[in-house]
Amino acid sequence: MNAVHFGAGNIGRGFIGLLLHQSGYKTCFVDVNAEIVNLLNEKKQYTVKLAEASGKELTVENVYAINSLKDPELVVDEVANADVITAAVGPNILPLIAGLLATGLKKRLEQSKKPLTIIACENMIGGSAFLKEKIYEELTNEEKTQFDMYYSFPNAAVDRIVPNQTNIDKLAVTVEPFYEWVVDESEIKGATPPIHGVTFVQDLEPFIERKLFTVNTGHAVVAYFGYLAGIRNMHEALENSEIREMVEQVLKETGRYLTATYSFDEKIHADYVQKIINRFANPYISDDTTRVGRSPMRKLKKNDRLVRPATKYVEMFSENPLYLTRGIAAALHYDFKEDPEANEIQLMIEQKGLQFTIERTTGIEPGTGLFEKIQKQYEEIAIKKSKK
Ligand SMILES: NC(=O)c1ccc[n+]([C@@H]2O[C@H](COP(=O)([O-])OP(=O)(O)OC[C@H]3O[C@@H](n4cnc5c(N)ncnc54)[C@H](O)[C@@H]3O)[C@@H](O)[C@H]2O)c1
Ligand SMILES: O=P(O)(O)OC[C@@H](O)[C@@H](O)[C@H](O)[C@H](O)CO
Questions:
Q1: Which residues are in the Mannitol dehydrogenase C-terminal domain (predicted)?
Q2: CATH number for the domain whose boundaries are 206-387
């Protein structure tokens, strides 16, 4: 079986590539990072190390790679011959891989009429549907009808903390032991791809919202408050009692929304939350607050981990969440110079003002209680910063 995976980065090698290998696939990684591509072709294998006391190492074999900037025609051929396609490139990059995928998938239809599943493994609601939308922008109406018959784009939720890597061996990846990959089976045409470790469900929404609004909301809040406190390491941030309290409270707010919406058992959800906070504090992982806080523009979008649970909370309980709004305010303060989106937000605040920036980044309407609360929290943080 042949798999093509776009994005040989942290999650690509450390999670998706590992499970594809364990399921018996030969995996072709597609990336634009020449060093990683060359190393994968040279070594044809890499190591995944579990961040736990055992330090267990797993070997991923049967892999090779293509640099899509250099050899796009090879990518087209691989896509045309694939048995499953996955991607973990980041939501902002999905539109950039859509063209090559469209060409490869068209070629595949000329060769055979076999169904194929394409899964985007990104931290976003509707990742595969978004990739499909971008691919379909490249098609005629007739091609769209053909694609509809054979190709599936099931959405997915992926969970495994994979920090930026500092190993001497550039291909080796250290990952937390926990993982969860949930895929919406109701969208799949033809046979479900046999991938070991994937949970196939008929309704993904509770899973993706639970993951994004617990793991990623909590993670983002620790990262932004950690950064504000001058802390660069996630587990050190968790040792700060104010930040710990902040994440506990923010996850009570998202938990209130999630349990009311999806009828989750409150005790089971509370245990899930504690397990996640413990994962953030894993001492065997060294994760940066700047990795977790990366791309604040994306994280502040209306359907993402901070704003969506906050707006849903208001809709559901007719009150403004205190801690989610603080988290949003902290994200607006995030001014890490090496992050282009952080720079964009800071420049917007400077040139167009805070109100314009809140409206533009979050989509929250000015004049609403939620908007005013975010503004107030932002100003309170600014006062605290000025006293330092
Ligand atoms: N790291 C995690 O803990 C984690 C966990 C769950 C989900 N995710 C999600 O997985 C996705 C990737 O995250 P990551 O942490 O692995 O990031 P990463 O930066 O380590 O990996 C992204 C990879 O995509 C490659 N890439 C960039 N442009 C490309 C292009 N045009 N074509 C092909 N490859 C391209 C990059 O070179 C890089 O190797 C994100 O959506 C992230 O939210 C990450
Ligand atoms: O990848 P992002 O930028 O959407 O979010 C940063 C982290 O929260 C994220 O990568 C987590 O480590 C991951 O989602 C855990 O499953």
A1: 203-381
A2: 1.10.1040.10
